[in-house]
Amino acid sequence: MDTAPEPGLLRIFRYFTGIAMVYFALVLSFAFLETGHAFSLQAQSLQAQSSLNFLTSLVLFGYLSQPWLARRLKQAYLPIALVAATVVPVFSNLVYLADPPQPSLEIIIARSWVLLPILVVPLVLIAWQYGFRWVLLFIIFTSGVELLILMPVARPVDIRTLPMVGVPLIRAFAFGTVGHIVHRLIETQRAQRQELVRANVRLAQHAETLEQLTLSRERNRLARELHDTLAHTLSGLAINLEAMKTVVAPGNDELQQMLDQALVTTRTGLDETRRTLKDLRARPLEDLGLSLAVRNQATSVAARANLALLLDLSGDLDGLPPRVQQNLYRIVQEGLENVTRHARAQRVALTLTRTDEGTALTIEDDGTGVRPGETASDVGYGLRGMRERAEEIGATYSLSSSAGTGTIVRVEVPEVRR
């Protein structure tokens, strides 16, 4: 069975019980005016049946008007109401067996049709929520109980009583037809709803692809701007510093040292600028996928910094949404750069795994760690940027570190259910 009622089903069910409550209240009021008795065991069978159905409708209306009951009963909430709305009206017809003298078959059949509109609503709701096999169970129960009521009264079954005994079977056929139609309509609606959800997912993926394309073009534009401005400026500055070194008078060691330091800083800045240009222009995720891109990045950084590398990567990372892949890749990139620049580590372990619960990224090193009293914001923009990228994709970010024991950065991305 479905765990949650279909949208609008409870509202319609509550509306029906309210109307039924008012109807049977009017019937009882009329019976009271005619007989002077209400809700008594001596009342006529019609009044007794109406009393039972009125009380059932009243209880069901109150039951369906209490949201806390739905939260408490959960999956059993709707079936309880449907069983009550079916069983009580069906067995209320038994009161005619107590009518003196011998119960009339014609009266039982005629008055049982009063139940038709009362039973049609639970039938439709069952077909709407649970499907046709539960409709068949509903039909077997309602028709079977009525046959059990009729057969003792109809004996012997002859040409006069046979059409009346067949009435429950005709009604069962009508119920089956209605249930089948409702079930087919609901199945069609559900299929259309699922197709709409899939179309929305495709549109979201298309929009994400366009966003990634826009970002890629913007990165290329920034790369060109940096190359034409900052990289050229640093290259020219480095050439000027080299030229200045050649004209410095011999013996001026202090100036030579200052020029050497400025030249080293300039060349380092130029190298970093070129690395940034390469990162901006390169499209490792689009070309290689997340798993291979992370592997290449980690291997390159470990070789450049002479680090012992331990890698653990899942094979299904490329199924993640593009935005998640992009941010995870940048977090890995920034985390490894932090290790090489600040940690003075000998070993780094990188784990990126995906499970049913989500995706987990861990970067662990054996470096100097964060000094006592030093926060992530004190270390620099790297760790702060990693946290911001994690928050952008709804991930949790944690940093575990102490001086001399290394650092562990962990990012956990919950699985997105579609």
Describe, in plain words, how this protein is organized in 3D:
- By secondary structure, this protein is of the alpha+beta class.
- Among the domains are: 157 residues; 134 residues, Histidine kinase-like ATPase, C-terminal domain (Heat Shock Protein 90, 2-Layer Sandwich).
- 69% of the residues lie in helices and 9% in strands.
- It has 15 helices and 5 strands.
- It has a 5-stranded mixed sheet with strand order 1-2-3-5-4, with helices on one face.
- Helix 13 links the parallel strand 1 and strand 2.
- Helix 7 packs antiparallel against helix 9.
Secondary-structure map:
Elements: H1 9-35, H2 45-64, H3 67-73, H4 77-92, H5 105-112, H6 115-129, H7 132-154, H8 162-165, H9 167-247, H10 253-281, H11 284-288, H12 290-305, E1 308-313, H13 322-343, E2 347-354, E3 358-365, H14 376-379, H15 381-392, E4 396-401, E5 407-414
Parallel strand pairs: 1-2
Antiparallel strand pairs: 2-3, 3-5, 4-5
Helix pairs in contact: 1-2, 1-6, 2-4, 4-6, 4-7, 5-7, 6-9, 7-9, 9-10, 12-13, 13-15
Backbone CA Rg: 39 Å
Assess the beta-strand content as a share of residues. Answer: 5-15%
Please summarize the sheet with the most strands. 5 strands, mixed
Count of helix runs: 15
Low-confidence stretches: 38-42
* Molecular shape: rod-shaped
Percent helix: 55-70%
Gap from first CA to last CA: 21 Å
The number of distinct β-strands equals 5
